[in-house]
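ok new one. same drill as before - structure tokens go in, u give me an amino acid for every spot. 164 of them this time. try not to just spam alanines like last time pls lmao
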């Protein structure tokens, strides 16, 4: 029985974490007009496409290589939090992509491979609302996940080291 995650799962976890931790402040900062707003917007929307690809790959790997058993009192809460993170991050990415494409804005990473969408303001506005609401959930779940990881790291109970 494995006691650690598969190496590919670890690499995808940390790549996703780094991107999301960079995207949160970029997403918040790009709302204010500044000299770097356009650059932040370009980074944020294209990183969102990458996060979606990483999350879908992570889901596939999770089914191919189930996580090692978690024998702690709050294992059910940890399991639920992980699935909520997967769901909310995917909703966040899809709604962001739809907001950009349906809003008639360029999405360089998808436009380069021929993925475009006819402008649809109603869809863009709905996606924008979902994206805005989901960002609170993403931030909250990420903070909860980080707090739990730090707790396990400080307790040295073996949970944190499974992802190293």
């Amino acid at each position: 029985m494995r006691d650690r995650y598969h190496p590919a799962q670890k690499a995808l976890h940390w790549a996703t974490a780094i991107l999301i931790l960079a995207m949160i402040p970029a997403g918040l900062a790009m709302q204010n007009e500044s000299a770097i707003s356009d650059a932040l917007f370009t980074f944020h929307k294209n990183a969102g496409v990458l996060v979606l690809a990483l999350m879908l790959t992570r889901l596939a790997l999770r089914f191919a290589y189930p996580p090692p058993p978690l024998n702690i009192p709050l294992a059910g809460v940890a399991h639920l939090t992980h699935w909520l993170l997967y769901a909310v991050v995917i909703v966040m990415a899809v709604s962001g992509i739809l907001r950009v494409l349906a809003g008639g804005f360029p999405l360089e990473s998808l436009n380069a491979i021929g993925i475009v969408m006819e402008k649809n303001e109603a869809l863009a506005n709905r996606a924008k609302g979902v994206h805005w609401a989901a960002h609170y959930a993403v931030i909250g779940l990420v903070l909860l996940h980080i707090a739990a990881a730090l707790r396990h790291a400080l307790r040295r109970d073996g949970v944190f080291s499974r992802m190293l």
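The chain has a mean pLDDT of 91. and btw Helices lie at 7-29, 37-64, 75-102, 108-111, 121-155.
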